[in-house]
Design brief:
Number of strands: 2
Number of helices: 13
Helix content: over 70%
Order of helices and strands: HHHHHHHHHEHHHEH
Low-confidence stretches: 478-488
Strand order of the largest sheet: 1-2
Mean pLDDT: 78
Shape: globular
Distance between the termini: 110 Å
Length: 488
C-alpha cells in the first residue's frame, strides 16, 4: 500500500509540474506576442488620441482601449501561428523522439494552446472589442457624475442590451432551423449550444471572407512585389530616361522660379508644383533602379515572381487534389479531435519537407488574404497609416484581423493544405460536416485563384512587353465624332 500511495503521489506531482510548466510556457508566449503587438499598434496610432495634456479622463479611456486592442491583436497573431506551431512541433518530436530538452513539447501543451486561442478569440470578438468601441464613445448617463466609472456603467448597459439582442437573434434562428425535440431542448443550453453556434456563424463568415480575399490578394501580391523590387532592363535605355527626367525637372523648377519673380506671367504655380513632385518621384525611382546591382536587377525580381507563381500554383494543385479526395474518400472531410497525438506520424507524405511546405503555404495564404482584404474597395478605408490612425480605425482593424486569423486553421484544413486535424472547439463547427459546403468551397477557391492568377499574369506580361518595346509612348488614335462633316 505504501508503494502504491507513493506512486500515486509521484504521478500527481508529475501532473502538477507539467501543468505549471505549460502555464509558464503559455504565459511567456502570449507576453512576447503582446509586446510585439504593442509596438505595432503604437507605430500606427494617432498621437493626438492619446495625449494626456488635454483631458486625463479621455487619455485613460484611450489607454484602456489601446490595451484591449493590443490583447486582441496578440490573440489574432497567436491564431495565425497556431497551426504552423503544431505542425513544426509534430515534426520536431518525430525527428528527436527521445531528446530530453524537448519533452515539454507535447500534445497537452498544443491542445491547451488551441483551447486558449479559441477562448480568447471568442472573448475578444464578443466582449472586449465591442466594449472598447462603446467605451471610447460613451460619456456617462445624463445626470450622473462624470468619470471613468460613469462610462463603464453606460458601456456595460449598452453591451448587455447588445448581447441580449444577439442571443435573441441566435435563439430565433435556431428555433427556425430545428424543430425536433433535441433542438428544442438545446435552446435552453447557453454554454454548450449558443456560444458554439454563434462562433460557428462567425467562423463561417471569416472563412467566406478568406475565400473572397485570398484569391484577390494572391494576384495583388504580384503587383506589390513589382513595386517593391527593381525590375530588369528589357530593351530600354535607363540612362536616357534618367537624363530626360532631370532636364524636365529643371525646366519645371525654372518655370516656378520665374513665376515667383515676375508678376506679369500668369502661371498656375500649384499645378506646376504638383507636376514637379510627380517628376521628382519618377526621377528617384529611376535613380533607384540605376543604382541597383546587376544581381539585384536581373535575379531579384524574376526569382520573386517565380516564387510567388510557384506558391500560388502549388496551393491550387493541392486544392484540386483535395477535391478529388473529397469525391473518393470520406476521410478527406475536415474533422475535429479532442486528443492531440503528436510525434507519431507525419502529416505530410513528403515528411519534413512537406510539413515545411505546409507551413509556408499557410503563412503565404494568410499574408495574401490580408493584402487582398486591404486592397478590396470595401475595406480600403480601414488601411492604417503610420502615426495617423485613429482609435476607432484601430479597433476595426483588430476585429477584422481577428476574424481572418481565427478562421485560418479551419480554412487551411478545409482546403486540404494540411492534414492536421482541428483540435478543441475548432472542430465543433456545424458546417464542417456538410459535404456540399466543403466541396463548393474548394471548387470556388480553385476557380477564383486560377482566374485571378491567369488574369494578373497575362496582363502583367502584356504590360511589360508594351513597356519594353516602347509602345506605351505611341499616341492613341482619336475616335472620329459622328457629327463631324469632314472625314478623319
Amino acid at each position: 500500500m505504501a508503494s502504491a500511495e507513493q506512486d500515486a503521489l509521484a504521478l500527481r506531482e508529475q501532473l502538477f509540474h507539467e501543468r505549471v510548466r505549460e502555464c509558464i510556457i503559455c504565459t511567456l508566449l502570449f507576453t512576447s506576442l503582446y509586446i510585439l503587438c504593442h509596438f505595432i499598434i503604437t507605430h500606427f496610432k494617432k498621437h493626438t488620441d492619446f495625449a494626456a495634456e488635454h483631458d486625463d479622463e479621455d487619455a485613460a479611456v484611450n489607454r484602456i482601449a489601446l490595451g484591449l486592442c493590443t490583447f486582441t491583436l496578440a490573440v489574432a497573431l497567436g491564431a495565425v501561428l497556431l497551426l504552423p506551431f503544431s505542425i513544426i512541433s509534430n515534426e520536431v518530436l518525430l525527428s528527436f523522439p527521445r531528446n530530453y530538452y524537448i519533452q515539454w513539447l507535447n500534445g497537452s501543451l498544443v491542445h491547451g494552446l488551441w483551447n486558449l486561442v479559441f477562448l480568447f478569440s471568442n472573448l475578444s470578438l464578443v466582449f472586449l472589442m465591442p466594449f472598447a468601441y462603446f467605451f471610447t464613445e460613451s460619456e456617462g448617463f445624463a445626470g450622473s457624475k462624470k468619470g471613468i466609472m460613469a462610462r463603464v456603467y453606460e458601456t456595460s448597459v449598452v453591451l448587455l442590451l447588445l448581447t441580449l439582442l444577439v442571443l435573441g437573434m441566435v435563439w430565433v434562428a435556431s428555433a427556425i432551423m430545428g424543430n425536433d425535440a433535441a433542438s428544442r431542448q438545446s435552446l435552453y443550453d447557453l454554454w454548450e449550444y449558443y456560444l458554439p453556434y454563434l462562433y460557428s456563424c462567425i467562423s463561417l463568415f471569416g472563412v467566406l471572407l478568406l475565400l473572397l480575399c485570398t484569391p484577390f490578394g494572391l494576384s495583388t501580391m504580384f503587383t506589390v512585389m513589382g513595386q517593391l523590387l527593381v525590375k530588369p532592363w528589357l530593351l530600354e535605355d535607363l540612362d536616357e530616361q534618367l537624363s530626360c527626367t532631370r532636364l524636365e525637372e529643371a525646366a519645371v523648377s525654372r518655370r516656378i522660379c520665374s513665376g515667383k519673380a515676375s508678376c506679369w506671367l500668369n502661371l498656375n504655380v500649384e499645378l506646376l508644383r504638383e507636376q514637379l513632385f510627380a517628376i521628382r518621384s519618377k526621377r528617384r525611382k529611376l535613380e533607384l533602379r540605376h543604382r541597383a546591382s546587376p544581381w539585384q536587377r536581373n535575379l531579384g525580381y524574376p526569382l520573386a515572381m517565380l516564387g510567388l507563381l510557384a506558391l500560388t500554383g502549388t496551393s491550387v494543385l493541392i486544392v484540386c487534389f483535395h477535391v478529388l479526395e473529397l469525391l473518393l474518400d470520406d476521410a478527406a472531410m475536415p474533422q475535429g479531435i479532442q486528443d492531440a497525438s503528436l510525434g507519431q506520424v507525419s502529416f505530410s507524405v513528403f515528411g519534413s519537407f512537406g510539413a515545411a511546405l505546409q507551413v509556408i503555404l499557410i503563412l503565404y495564404l494568410m499574408v495574401s488574404s490580408v493584402v487582398g482584404f486591404y486592397s478590396s474597395p470595401l475595406f480600403t478605408r480601414l488601411l492604417p497609416a503610420r502615426q495617423d490612425t485613429p482609435l476607432t480605425k484601430i479597433i476595426g482593424n483588430c476585429v477584422s484581423l481577428l476574424v481572418l486569423s481565427s478562421a485560418l486553421p479551419v480554412f487551411s484544413r478545409t482546403l486540404g493544405i494540411t492534414w492536421f486535424d482541428l483540435l478543441g472547439d475548432f472542430g465543433r463547427f456545424n458546417w464542417l460536416g456538410n459535404f456540399y459546403i466543403v466541396f463548393l468551397y474548394n471548387m470556388g477557391f480553385a476557380a477564383l485563384t486560377t482566374l485571378c492568377l491567369v488574369k494578373r499574369v497575362s496582363w502583367g506580361v502584356q504590360a511589360e512587353l508594351i513597356r519594353a518595346f516602347g509602345l506605351h509612348k505611341l499616341p492613341l488614335p482619336t475616335p472620329c465624332s459622328l457629327h463631324l462633316t469632314q472625314p478623319c
